[in-house]
């Protein structure tokens, strides 16, 4: 399971950087990760902040909704 989480974090970070480059405004960008061993698909969203600069370092913040939750429900309850 540790390898799976490391893989997910690596894909998340690399995809975030690739999708965020040159972003002009804040947005959620959807993506999917397929776990090679099981074929399980994990859907996730990356928030790209206004003024994002790939040359800068940023903290990684992961928000996970409860089972059966959705992005809109999570956003409405978090005040985003």
Helix/strand layout:
Blueprint lengths: L1 H19 L6 E8 L6 E8 L22 H8 L2
Antiparallel strand pairs: 1-2
Give a verbal description of the structure.
With 80 residues, this protein is α+β, with helices and mostly antiparallel strands. It has one domain. Helix content is 34%, strand content 20%. The protein has helices at residues 2-20, 71-78; strands spanning 27-34, 41-48. The protein has a two-stranded antiparallel sheet with strand order 1-2. Strand 1 (27-34) and strand 2 form a beta hairpin.
Radius of gyration: 14 Å
Q: Could you spell the SSE succession in H and E letters?
A: HEEH
Number of strands: 2
The tally of structural domains comes to 1
Which shape, going by the Cα principal axes? globular
Count of discrete alpha- or pi-helical segments spanning 4 or more residues: 2
Helical content class: 25-40%
**Structure classification:** alpha+beta
Major sheet strand order = 1-2
- Main β-sheet description: 2 strands, antiparallel
Question: What labels describe this entry?
Answer:
80 residues; alpha+beta; 34% helix
How do you describe this structure in short?
This protein is an alpha+beta fold and 80 residues long. It has one domain (2-78). It has two helices and two strands; from the N terminus they run αββα.
């Amino acid at each position: 399971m540790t390898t799976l989480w490391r893989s997910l974090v690596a894909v998340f970070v690399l995809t975030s950087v690739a999708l965020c480059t040159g972003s002009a405004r804040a947005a959620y960008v959807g993506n999917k990760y397929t776990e090679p061993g099981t074929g399980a698909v994990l859907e996730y969203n990356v928030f790209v902040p206004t003024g994002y600069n790939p040359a800068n370092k940023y903290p990684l913040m992961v928000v996970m909704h409860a089972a059966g939750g959705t992005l809109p429900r999570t956003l409405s309850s978090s005040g985003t």
